Amino acid sequence: MFNPAQLAAHIAAVDAATTNHDKGASFEALAIYLFEHLDGVEVTEHDIRMPSEEIDIVLWNAQREEVLRPWEAVVLVECKNWSSNVGAPALDNFIGKLRRRSLTTGIFVAASGVTGGFVNGDGDEPGAVGIIRGALQEGIRVIVITMNDIRAIGCLDDVRKLIKTRYCGLYVHKVL
Question: Average pLDDT in the 70-83 region?
Fold first, then answer.
């Protein structure tokens, strides 16, 4: 059962982490906590290390949760607990992981958000947002969730609303 106090404890663990390993592990645990409470969503694997790449979280989506019905059964989640915005190369790498698995839906949890023209107000450089827009033209949908988004969550309905808002926002070029 989703518990705001447990969510707060996960957030506190992320805030208290000092080593890169602890920062990554606590951030992934926080993301897992958010998604595993949605109806029909199961974390099947996490922290998968292969010779050429790593996958942070694999979700099974039984499509019982209304907001996730348009999504496919397998959803990859990438977590970046960076102190700065994540740039285009990291987003491109994640989208490549989706392509190589013939998947069309992913969640990119970036503590500080992603780079990009209309996100940061500098319309000249599309950055990571440009990568997301380009992928959308191929039918690949990636939503971005930030630490500020997570801090604003008070109940499971807030998670649903966030997913819905970000998913719909993709189609009007409003990533954040």
Answer: 96
Task: Evaluate whether residue 134 is within a structural domain.
Answer: yes
The pLDDT score that the predictor gives to residue 112 is 94
Q: Residue 27 domain-assigned? A: yes
The total number of structural domains in the chain stands at: 1
Per the domain annotation, does 92 fall within a domain? yes
For residue 16, what are the CA distances in angstroms to 1, 23, 36, 145? Answer: 24, 8, 23, 20
Q: How far apart are CA 160 and CA 38, in angstroms?
A: 8
* Residues linked to residue 45 through DSSP beta bridges, in sequence order: 58
Q: What is the Cα–Cα distance from 157 to 154, expressed in whole angstroms?
A: 8
Domain containing 111 — which CATH number? Answer: 3.40.1350.10
- Residue 34 has a pLDDT of 96
pTM over 0.90: yes
Classify 102 as helix, strand or coil.
coil
